[in-house]
């Protein structure tokens, strides 16, 4: 489970919106059920929160697949982030690399659920763990799609279109499963304890004959940069910083770190231990984040002509102007007075 906020690309929401519309639901009704506004779904750079995405899946995965919907999916697959992930995963040095790259990059599309891959010799076991399914209400369509993607990769890399594939899924059969089973040349079994698939892949470590190293290096480098940027934007630390910013905006008197820590833990429904552990995973800590927010607030207030350095120091909770000056200089490389004079000069 990732420590950052789980999201999916808005393009999946757009597919869900189109599917719902094709089944007679208006965008307003779609929003009422899923919480996803049409503008959110149509934002080409947008991300949808996990709870909204799961609500959408609970709606659309129970709908009977329509004949024209695959064309919409085909159009989406040609656009980023789908195209980026596909280009890397389908052009990896080996099948083993393809599986690993899928795990590394799938967050660009969405990281609401988890995929686990275990290898023992030539045998691979894939398990798809669904989030928000404590009541067992989600269908196995998402699990089927992701597991089948692994099987397609195996067939491609090993050049074996007849590789036998058997997939176990929890819950009851989803609409259209028979057609999907026939199209994908696989066997589905429902009511299992886990969403899983086991494959015997003796050639998984062999070099892929069609691998293009130049194209792979370029696109994989781009993909890794996009993953890093996404994780930073939706990191747990970013959530904590945004929450602190909200709690102290507008500033009356900036609360002490211990008070802020209690407030943040209460809002996130987590313990101090868990919060510190998650921040530590991202190589940061609570005091560093509060310092970043304090510096941001200090700069905002110092840019106001009527704000004195002494007043800013008091509002930010420093014991003295000298303590504030030391903090500001250490964080920004400038004294508060120098920062104010440079702004006035600009």
From TrEMBL:
**By its UniProt entry, which InterPro entries does this protein fall under?**
AraC-type_N, Homeodomain-like_sf, HTH_AraC, HTH_AraC-typ_CS
Q: Which UniProt keywords apply?
A: DNA-binding, Transcription, Transcription regulation
Q: Name one GO cellular component term.
A: cytosol
- Provide the HTH araC/xylS-type domain boundaries: 238-342
What does the record give under GO molecular function?
DNA-binding transcription factor activity; transcription cis-regulatory region binding
Superkingdom of the source species: Bacteria
Q: Which PANTHER family does the UniProt record give?
A: HTH-TYPE TRANSCRIPTIONAL REGULATOR GADX (PTHR47894), HTH-TYPE TRANSCRIPTIONAL REGULATOR VQSM (PTHR47894:SF1)
Q: What is this protein called?
A: CFA/I fimbrial subunit D
